[in-house]
Amino acid sequence: MAQTTSTQTRSEAVGMVETRGLIAALESLDTMAKAAQVRMLSFRRAGSGLVTVIVAGDVAAVQSAVAAGEAAADRTGEELISACVIPRPHPDLWPALKD
What we know:
Elements: E1 12-20, H1 22-35, E2 39-47, E3 50-58, H2 59-75, E4 79-87, H3 94-97
Antiparallel strand pairs: 1-3, 1-4, 2-3
């Protein structure tokens, strides 16, 4: 089993919000950071306007942040594609989530 580092623990969660449009993704990230104690792991552009924001923190904080991020993305008028929270992801998943 892979070792976790000091930046992630077994009790942490990962949250993702995917939008079609940069403005919605930036608004979502800003709102998530203000809503709860989370840190950004990655900001990815996949083409065709798809942007995914990935954050981490304790489970409750990530759930709260992703809910706030979804609402913020909806308010921009751009398309919210999906949102997801993975509580306590397997340690092997962490390297794939970081930039």
